[in-house]
Amino acid sequence: MPKVSVIIPAYNAENTIVETIESIQKQTLPDFEVLVIDDGSKDKTIEVVKQIADPRVQVFAYPNGGVSVARNRGIEQAKGEFIAFIDNDDLWTEDKLELQIAALEKNPQASAVYSWTVNMMDDGESISFVQGAESTVEGNIYPDLLLGHFIASGSNVLVRREVIDVVGGYEPNLVFSDWDFCLRVAAKFQFAVVPKVQILYRKVAGSMSSKVDAMEKEGLRALERAYQAAPPELQRLKNRSLAFMYRYLADLCLAYDTDAKGLDYAQAKLWQAVTLYPGILGESYIQKLIIKLIIKRVLPTELANSVIQSLKKKLARPDPRV
Fold first, then answer.
1. Residues 58-116: pLDDT tens digits?
2. How far is 200 from 260, CA to CA, in rounded Å?
3. How far apart are alpha carbons 19 and 39 in whole angstroms?
4. Are the C-beta atoms of residues 178 and 152 closer than 8 Å to each other?
5. How many whole angstroms separate alpha carbon 233 and alpha carbon 228?
6. What is the pLDDT of residues 209-224, one digit of tens each?
7. What is the DSSP letter of 9?
């Protein structure tokens, strides 16, 4: 029985899946199996994976069901004592599994563990912290996780096998199913944290304003589901949760959109955030977004981007990969 089962839901991933698997093969903890769950790919994903000469790597082909269904199919095949997930275009640092397992073994009361995440653009070089992803909260993280998904992606969390037996798998009908899954785990189990960047989350450039409406709708569904299950003493956090979600959507628009429509969306989401939770104005994150919006409003696109990049460099932290 392998120590860890690593589940990769894969759809049309021929261009990224090998790099993802290589980041797993380089792990300093070698006792794992890799379960690639092909979700009805129409490219050469299956052929590419089958060419990898490593008996720890297996591929299973299914009709398309979506990423949550693929993760659940992987859980059904998993034999490991621990289960981890990674998307087909993300990467791990070499010590990800070793340090996460060590954190759980050091803290036997915890049944799940997360690390820090950074964004990686397609060029592999543009790195930035995922907002909120430097959290050091552990133990009962449920109230903090209700306020925002600082675990950041489906490529982060690692759980003991018994966690799945208690909370089940991923919800197929939710876009934000990884947040929903982590919330259900946090409601019943304690978390440990590895306070180090270990997940490189690949982001694809492109317009976000066209997607914000759908993301908002799905985010509201995820939050409604979460607060239906939350105890009475945490219901007071709902407005803050909504405000932080709108802040996140505003950030996406400001990061990727330069046209008037994208800026209008960002401004509307920022206003909704402040209206729901005025205290958010005291946070540096929202202040930076407001400044960014103003710069993009008053300056031509190229000049605005230049000014924003200059400000980022002045405020930049060391490369998180170092």
1. 999 999 999 999 999 999 999 999 999 999 999 999 999 999 999 999 999 999 999 99
2. 31
3. 18
4. no
5. 12
6. 557 788 888 889 889 9
7. E
Structure tokens at 19: 């790099």
Q: Is 168 helix (H, G, I), strand (E, B) or coil?
A: coil
Helices (H), 140-283: 142-146, 161-167, 177-186, 209-229, 238-256, 260-276
Of 35, 32, 50, 120, whose CA–CA distance to 320 is shortest?
120
- Contacts of 215-218 with CB under 8 Å at 24 or more apart are 215/175, 215/249, 215/252, 216/245, 216/246, 216/249, 216/269, 218/174, 218/175, 218/176
The β-bridge partners of 201 are 119
φ and ψ at residue 131, rounded to 5 degrees: -55, 125
Token pair in block for residue 172? 């197929």
CA distance 64 to 73: 11
> Taking the model in full, what pTM does it have?
0.89
Q: How far apart are CA 244 and CA 190, in angstroms?
A: 23
Q: What DSSP line would sit under 90-133, residue for residue?
A: -EE-TTHHHHHHHHHHH-TTEEEEEEEEEEE-TTS--EEEPTTT
Report which of residues 151 and 124 the model is more confident about. 151
Q: Which residues of 151-160 are buried (b: 16+ CB within 10 A; e: fewer)?
A: bbbbbbbbbb
